[in-house]
Amino acid sequence: MTCDSWQGKLDAYVDGDASQADFASLGEHLRTCPSCAADALGRLQMKRMTQAAAARYSPSPQFRLRVEKSIQSRKPVWGFAWMPTLAAFAVALVLIVASAALWMRHSAREQALAELLDLHVATMASANPVDVISTDRHTVKPWFQGKLPFTFNLPELQNSPFQLVGGRLMYFKHSPGAQLLFALRNHRISVFILQDQPGMVPLVMGATVAREMAFNVETWSESGLRYIVIGDAGPADIHELSELLRVVGRS
Amino acid sequence: MPLFAKLYNFAHWLTQDRAAAEDLVQETYMKALRGFSSFRQGTNFRAWMYKILRNTFLTTQTGLKAWASVSLDSDSDGDAPIEPAVSETPESVLLARVQQETIQNALEKLPVKFREIVLLCDLEEMSYQEIGELLGIPLGTVMSRLSRARKAMRVLLTAKLQEGSR
User: Which chain A positions have a beta carbon within 8 Å of B92's beta carbon?
Assistant: First the structure.
């Protein structure tokens, strides 16, 4: 097959939507054709940059509250066939009602957490979860140079059960941050490192692992940076990784 | 409301206006609640919500206007493709000089038909099949429209860079 015939399939390859056969043969072609490989890389970079640039608008907490109130005042009539989903909605409604009194205090925190959980879930679902793929902290950390207005330290993981998978540039509240991906057996854990601007991530400080939508989350602030560790691994594992990062963050 | 922030971002890109985006998202949630019985369990809830939002947008004045401004035959493969002014420019060279704001400006200038498909694919990372179901178009049209949208992006970015270098 000539390069011209591959060109039409590069978008599907980069989007993770090529057929299994095309994926394998195009992958083989890219290993031997620098021109097509550069083209594919360019398209991937474009996709990543568009993804970062397009995550631009955030709803205001006031608007979120308004919609929550509207939902609350319009409880629909459901049939029995929808009981499981109804239960999920009922739980959501109960949560909304229960949190109404504490909303002013907690809404920003919940919104921040929801956004970060979305980011973690989206990363898990992505065909290309990281922009820099390496288990070596001396490769991953320098990759962020010039991309972030801050720097951070990564722990030596040789004698730990964790393995660095890579990292990617992310945006949160219009500010750039680092998302690092760690592996623990079959679990994937995201570590978000952001500038700790006032009111940016009003998360409770401390070493407690919280449970959010079945994920375990730990967050703390250190030297002007906000660390958020999110994953489906056990609370003890999340805390262990957090401790490793906390120690190296102080150094 | 785990989809709330993402739906809002998508709505803002479609409407290009904060107030209109808020109205659109609120209307989407109201319609979703009212029409929840039409949601088939086991199907894609995310795609269902985006479909409601998009259909609602298309019934608004802004949506109708934006949609009407796009050529009806712009998906046909027989059309002369929009090529970048400098067709040989590799994306990597282009991107090395492009700032995030430039990409945002290019996205704003894209016809809404192109903007939405780029957002669904690149930002929401939906599969071609999901996009096809959401937009109500066949898989081949998803691929050709996406390809044309990305070419249009490259044209806008290249033009912006050429403008800047003058």
Answer: 38, 41-42, 45
